[in-house]
Amino acid sequence: MDKKSFETVLDEIRKAVLTEYKLKAIEYVHGYFSSEQVVDLLRYFSWAEPQLKAMKALQHKMVAVHPAEVVNILNCFTFSKDKLVALELLAS
Question: Which of 67, 5, 65, 4 is nearest to 36 (CA)?
Fold first, then answer.
C-alpha cells in the first residue's frame, strides 16, 4: 500500500476509540499491507486479544511476508501463546 493510503488508514485507526471501529477501518481497505505497515498498525491495539483480532482482519490483506519479517510482526506480541496464534494466522 502506498504511503498516502496507509496514512489515511492509520489516521482512521488513531481516531477510533473502540477496537471494533479500528477493525472496520482495516476491513474496508482495498489495498495490501506490507509487514512494516502491519507492525505499525498493531501498535494501536493495546492488548493481545485486539491485536489478534487485527491480525485476523489483516490475514488476507497482506503482501507475501518474508520469513525474516515475520519475526518483527511476532515481536509485537508479549506472550508465546499469542505469538503462536499470530504465526498460525500468518501461515494460513
Answer: 65
